[in-house]
Amino acid sequence: MLISTILTILIIFGALQALAGGLVYVERKICAFMQNRIGPNRVGPVGLLQILADGLKFIMKEEFVPHYADKSVFIIAPAIGLVCAMLCFAVVPFGATDNPADADYITHYQFIIAKNVDIGILFIFAVSSLTVYGIILGGWASNNKYSLIGGLRSSAQIISYEIPLGLSILGVVLMTGSLNLERIIWKQASGGILEWNIWFQPLAFLLFMISSFAECNRLPFDLPETEQELVGGYHTEYNGMKLAFFFLGEYTHMVTSCFLMVILFFGGWHFPFIAEADMWWGLKLIVFVAKMALFIVFYMLVRWTIPRFRFDQLMSLAWKVLIPMTLLNLVAVMFVKEYGITPWVLLPVSLGILVGAGLIASQPESKESPLAA
Fold first, then answer.
1. What is the DSSP string of 146-208?
2. If you average pLDDT over every residue of the chain, what do you get?
3. What pLDDT score does 103 carry?
4. Beta bridge partners of 275
5. What is the pLDDT of residues 139-180, one digit of tens each?
6. How far is CA 215 from CA 11, 40, 211, 252, 253, in A?
7. Gap between the Cα atoms of 338 and 360, Å rounded
8. On the CB side of 328, how many CA atoms lie within 13 Å of its CA?
9. pLDDT value at position 259?
10. Do residues 95 and 284 make contact, with C-beta atoms less than 8 angstroms apart?
11. Coil, strand, or helix at residue 275?
């Protein structure tokens, strides 16, 4: 058991590092496609060896620490972000797992590092909330005004969007009756595609996805970096492997959030007639990874489609829009659970909340000052 766990950790750690490099290549290709350019095409066939070239560039660059920086904190900060992003993946199933409710659970290999953790979601939120320290400390230790502003923006952004991120999944937790990610998958898989949480919680999925964009510092929520304003934000003074650690942490966090969206709302490894509960684990793994890949591509398409928000718009969206909507959605789920109503009622309720929020937002603001009288 111990040996298999260690091997799983090593394989996952190496796979995530390789995947991060591959995602940089895919993102550059998608960017080129959307902007009618070519993208990487010189190093190797269709530019595939560009991944290796980028990795060697990071490794061979001279490691430089500004003389006016706090050197110890400056070096530790990138490691904090990467370690926290890796720890989040410890409780995320990345393939087929047995039903935790079965008596013979853990008699076969489970595609997860920490098996049957009953507080899996809480662990992810607890660890992911620590990633902000890497960004804040990196910006502060750089002793650079641009980096400091980027770190401050990140602290406000991540802390604000953690609230709707957490509230959005409480409805799923209430409907499943567990914080265990494996149980959430099996709850959906045992009932078929019509039991996927996306049918009952479409609003929660939308809010979770938007909050995940902000948590991962992805456009249109990349205010901590915002090259046009802050040159690079919190990592302006970083280079070499220290800069690579920040990028690896960001892409790992994105992969984790995509897995969570698949697990919480789209049935995990389940897919009708292709990956059912009693089918071969390889099919389940393929379906799981394919769903995750679709969400990653969606992340990248959004990055090159929607322009960046202003910072006041970013904060208003969290506090004035997302948090009230998540609270309304949570109250609706609690009402349904308390009175034993069919969960299908939540579908029109979610759409009603979304339409109502849109109507309120579309109302023109009064130009008259409230102090005019």
1. HHHHHHHHHHHHHHHHHHHHHHHHHHHHHHHT-S-HHHHHHHHHHH-GGGSHHHH-HHHHHHH
2. 87
3. 57
4. 271
5. 889 888 888 888 888 888 888 999 999 999 999 999 998 899
6. 26, 28, 6, 12, 8
7. 29
8. 17
9. 93
10. yes
11. strand
Show the DSSP H helices in the chain as ranges.
Answer: 2-34, 50-60, 71-88, 120-128, 131-141, 145-176, 181-191, 197-200, 202-215, 227-230, 240-265, 281-303, 311-316, 323-339, 346-362
What are the backbone dihedrals phi and psi of residue 116, each rounded to the nearest 5 degrees, phi first? 50, 50
Closest by CA to 74, choosing from 11, 141, 160, 24, is: 141
Domain edges within the chain: 61-354
Which of 285, 263, 254 shows the shortest CA–CA distance to 88?
254
Length of the chain: 373
* Spatial contact of 315 and 323, defined as CB atoms under 8 Å apart: no
- In the DSSP assignment, the letter for residue 42 is S
Closest C-alpha among 292, 162, 297 to residue 221: 162
Please give the backbone phi and psi of residue 51, each rounded to the nearest 5 degrees, phi first: -60, -50
C-alpha 185/C-alpha 187 separation (Å) is: 5
Instruction: Identify the bridge partners of residue 271 per DSSP, sorted by sequence position.
Output: 275
